[in-house]
Write a structure and sequence with these properties.
CATH topology of the largest domain: Rossmann fold
Number of domains: 2
Distance between the termini: 27 Å
Number of helices: 14
Structural class: alpha/beta
Radius of gyration: 19 Å
Order of helices and strands: HHEHEHHEHEHEHEHEHHEEEEEHHEH
Helix content: 25-40%
CATH architecture of the largest domain: 3-Layer(aba) Sandwich
Strand order of the largest sheet: 12-11-7-10-9-8-13
Strand content: 15-25%
Number of strands: 13
């Protein structure tokens, strides 16, 4: 299915579907109970698909997963990004061994499932793959990056609003062990600033931070929330330093690692002290939120926050092009 983005966006505008951060922040979606527990996966080109399927289809699954089970998968998925596409044949075999049926289209998948995990590694495909899911009225989690551009991100949330179907996107790093307590002010008081680091592998088809640096950016936003005013980026072959200044004066710094040993972590600064950000503990904490979302229709990450997070990364790309000059995030959001 090909989507003419310009025509699609123009149509949404004509229908009065706003794309601003303010309009999508207050969307009221249907919270009716889903009809069943059958999960479908779109995209078998990422290890996330396998991790989720193994957890949901385990012989003795975690009780917090509420009986959801992957029953069908559409493998594609990246076709032009070799590092992702080459995984598909092996991952097809793995999910088959978990009792998952392989289907040849998204529509065939939608005929067999109640909710969807959109896992395709190529963010450029997410808009066109999400639209039929929204049209079918099925709740969908969209893995990182939600899209490969800010325009597509806005279009995804606009389409979700148009079809009254809730959706959210998140990196698993949002749910490392102590981030929720830090954000709630339980450990060091109110957060005054954050430094976060993560690998920042580059992929030519995506803006730089969208591909992998998004994990560290997600930690920044999990702790600082919305309100980033401007972004400056210093780029070197092995390192990125991206500094975001929030409208209230708080500062978030992301260090992207491409040289030497990678890893995830950082430091949070608060009114009552400092605290290291906890270690990555796997995918279950995110999967718990996804399952709760499937059950309730309540999104754990506000669309406005995800949109601003994407604008932060887009601003970092623009700052790189401008030699490290400051780029106004709010101007990008409003464009």
């Amino acid at each position: 299915m090909e989507v003419n983005r310009r025509k699609f966006l123009k149509g949404l505008t004509a229908m009065g579907v706003g794309l601003s951060a303010m309009s999508i922040a207050n969307v009221g979606f249907s919270r009716d109970a889903v009809a069943g527990k059958r999960v479908g996966i779109i995209g078998l080109d990422t290890s996330h698909s396998i991790a989720f399927a193994k957890a949901l289809n385990a012989s003795q699954p975690d009780s917090k997963l509420n009986g959801y089970r992957v029953v069908a998968a559409y493998p594609y998925g990246s076709r032009t990004i070799e590092s992702s596409a080459k995984r598909i044949p092996g991952y097809i075999d793995e999910v088959k061994n978990l009792g998952v049926a392989i289907v040849d289209s998204i529509q065939a998948l939608l005929d067999q499932v109640d909710v969807v995990l959109l896992e395709t590694n190529d963010g450029r495909l997410h808009l066109e793959q999400a639209i039929p899911v929204f049209k079918a009225g099925k709740r969908v989690f969209i893995d990182k990056p939600i899209a490969a551009s800010l325009a597509d991100t806005k279009a995804i949330f606009a389409a979700a609003k148009q079809h009254n179907v809730p959706t959210f996107s998140s990196s698993s790093l949002r749910y490392v062990e102590n981030i929720s307590d830090l954000a709630a002010g339980k450990l060091i008081g109110d957060i005054t600033g954050v430094d976060a680091f993560a690998p920042a592998t580059l992929e030519a088809t995506h803006p730089d931070l969208f591909w992998y640096g998004i994990h560290g950016v997600e930690m920044l936003f999990a702790l600082l929330g919305t309100g980033c005013k401007e972004v400056r980026r210093t780029f070197a072959e092995g390192t990125d330093i991206v500094v975001g200044t929030w409208s209230d004066g708080r500062v978030g710094v992301f260090r992207g690692i491409r040289a030497g040993k990678g890893g995830y972590g950082g430091m949070a600064y608060g009114t009552e002290g400092q605290q290291a950000i906890g270690k990555f503990g796997g995918y279950l904490p995110l999967l718990y939120r996804i399952v709760d979302f499937f059950d309730t229709g309540i999104v754990p990450v506000n669309p406005a926050e995800t949109t601003e997070l994407v604008a932060f990364m887009a601003a970092a790309d623009e700052s790189k092009r401008k030699g490290g000059a400051a780029v106004n995030v709010q101007n990008l959001l409003n464009s």
